[in-house]
Amino acid sequence: DMYYGLENEDDNWNKIFRQLASQGHLDRLRLLRESLLTANGNFNKNQIGWFVQLFEDLKPATEELLALQSELFQVLTSPQSKPINSALNHIKDISKGPSFLVDEFLIQVPVLLASSVKAVVNSTIAICENLLKDRPEIKETICLALIDGFVNNDEGIQKKLAKLITKYGTNEIVSLPLSGYTQYILS
């Protein structure tokens, strides 16, 4: 089959979309944006996985990821873990920059920490740890967001959270919010 002068013998639509974007027939940023938005659309797991793979194969640059932050944060509420893990990997890459929308990310942290998927929780903690190191001026806000992770009943995760909160938080800020989680804290 020929589409826009492109051969598609192997019926690889992912390849066709990438070629059309690279040749300027498709708006690359829009293709990236729409691929992200399928994570919460009316698609099944396989279709969402296909769009996640297309997004990954397009290898978005840092500037593109920064332009798509709101969409990346929307992916974090997907019912599927594959797009969430993909989005978190990209968020980790851009979280060090000054144009990273920290507050928008922190709104998502409590839900991410409550995830039953360990990779999602660990990636979220890793991003928060980077933010704690890079943005000391908002360490209390980040520590308060991390406290919600004590609903997770994995002892290893709770230990990571406790270490970060102890290292970066101050007693007067975190003690009262922490007291609400005493029934969840394991050790």
Please give the structural blueprint:
Blueprint: E1 2-3, E2 6-7, H1 13-22, H2 28-37, H3 45-57, H4 62-67, H5 69-75, H6 81-94, H7 102-113, H8 118-134, H9 139-147, H10 155-168, H11 171-179
Antiparallel strand pairs: 1-2
Helix pairs in contact: 1-3, 2-3, 5-6, 6-8, 7-8, 7-9, 8-9, 8-10, 9-10, 9-11
Tell me about this structure.
This protein has 187 residues and is mainly alpha-helical. Helix content is 65%, strand content 2%. The protein contains 11 helices and 2 strands, in the order ββααααααααααα. It has helices at residues 13-22, 28-37, 45-57, 62-67, 69-75, 81-94, 102-113, 118-134, 139-147, 155-168, 171-179; strands spanning 2-3, 6-7. A two-stranded antiparallel ribbon has the order 1-2. A hairpin with a 2-residue loop joins strand 1 and strand 2. It is elongated and about 60 Å long. The termini are far apart.
List keywords for this structure.
about 190 residues, mainly alpha, two-stranded antiparallel sheet, elongated
Summarize the structure.
The chain is mostly helical and 187 residues long. 65% of the residues lie in helices and 2% in strands.
Distance between the termini: 62 Å
Categorize the overall geometry: elongated
Compute the average pLDDT: 91
Indicate the low-confidence ranges by residue numbers. none
